Amino acid sequence: MKKAKILSTSIILCLLLTIIPSCKTKNVQSNLPQSSLSQQSQNSTTNTNNNSNNTNSKEEDNSLENQENIVYISANSLIVRAEANYNAKVIDKLLKGTEVRILENKADDKKNVWYKISYSNNSKESSGWILSNYTVKNRTDLLSKDLKSLDFSPQNKVSEYDNNPRVKVKGIYVTIYSASNSRIDELIEMTKRTKINAFIIDVKDDKGTMLFPTKAAEKYAPEANKKAPIKDIAAFMKKLKDNNIYAIARIVSFKDPTYIKAHPDRAIIYKGTNKVFTNKDNLAWATAYDKDLWDYNISVAKEAAEVGFNEIQFDYVRFPASNGGKLDKILDYRNTDNIPKPLAIQNYLKLAYKELSPLKVYIGADIYGLVGSVPDDMALGQYFEAISNVVDYVCPMMYPSHYANGTYKLQIPDAKPFETIFNSAKDSVARNKNIKTPAIIRPWIQDFTATWVKGHIHYGVNEVSNEIKALELNGIDEFMLWNAGNKYTEEAVK
Questions:
Q1: 3-state DSSP assignment of residue 249
Q2: 3-state secondary structure of 137
Q3: Contact (CB, 8 A) for 293 and 256
Q4: Are 112 and 131 a contacting pair, CB within 8 Å?
Q5: Is 46 helix (H, G, I), strand (E, B) or coil?
Q6: Closest alpha carbon to 492 in 473, 470, 475
Q7: Are 467 and 418 within 8 A, CB to CB?
Q8: 320 contacts 277 by C-beta, under 8 angstroms
Q9: φ, ψ for residue 312 (rounded to 5)?
Q10: Whether 245 contacts 198, CB under 8 Å
Q11: pTM of the full structure
Q12: pLDDT tens digits for range 436-477
């Protein structure tokens, strides 16, 4: 009977490993029924000798003991001190939700209980003292009702596709216009003089326009094809491949005035007046609850994959900025399923991953840079762990010009590119440690001068180089440069 069970388990594992024969996977067991995993554990234990049993028992006891010593930070930002008292030197600050291990505890003269803790800090273990009353045993206790509905379980992600190896991306943004004129040749020549090895190219841009005519646009928003500038997409992709450029298709998800023109009933509107909601740029937003738009975006992504793009990057994968949610009372998001914003965004990305993985392309998602440093979804539907958990690459937009004055205690973040990027990257790395299958962090960084910011500085070689250095000090070895005009600081990436 025991042999039969072992054989049955082996067959199950073999079948799972052959579902995607052309790729390497991790966390295959995470999708097995708990009974199967339990049975595997029982079978393994049955077939070991007594010494192994004793060793395993000790290891399990140690594991349980370690787990009992794990707590999570409950304050939005908790000070770590060198000693167990209020006057001790401040050595660090930990984000809400950070996992720490209790090494010992001590009461001070005022009977406050302090924990000496160890925690991971930039790939190294650090220790210090925190007040015990700002911790909880269960991380889910820190989540709001909306966030508790999200999927934080280990995902069955692809490690690498055989015919599409991962690349340490040093990328630049390329507009539809640059892609379709002589500028593309100039940018290709730039890659030969610098470390740039990837282009993030608009396939569906902020106005909903296609890079090349797609069947998806013909079905959902025919006007999106009318201004598509690339008529021979095969020749275009061949040029990129011939020059060893890793091609990433940028697909703007929910900011799509062209789609709204074809489907005005899908727009976000003001309650009572039915007026279409727009941001400062006067472009209409579709609701992220619109599953036809999900299908449209994913269908465009499939066509991009089929013509040779290595990766799909979903941008504007969020609800529009609503003044921290204050506008939610007056906006109609057409939420007929009555589900929270972050769940809609996560479900969209999970569906995209499921539909696109068979085409052997990686999936990325752009998020606000500040998302990694706040304990909620910023009323955008972007909760860091929820997004990182279901894509291959999470791409915080860490433009210093986009952080409010005072963020990270910096008077003008735009004037402090190294410090802004360092703090943002540090927080994002910490958040990734809260989940078992996080995405690789590949940030967007600023290669433009934000003249509209009061107190701004000019961005050149030193500023861009310092941004890259700040990422590297946090263990992040990939980046993407953003410049809307596609004019880049070459000296910073040589």
A1: strand
A2: coil
A3: yes
A4: yes
A5: helix
A6: 470
A7: yes
A8: yes
A9: -110, 130
A10: yes
A11: 0.86
A12: 999 999 999 999 999 999 999 999 999 999 999 999 999 999
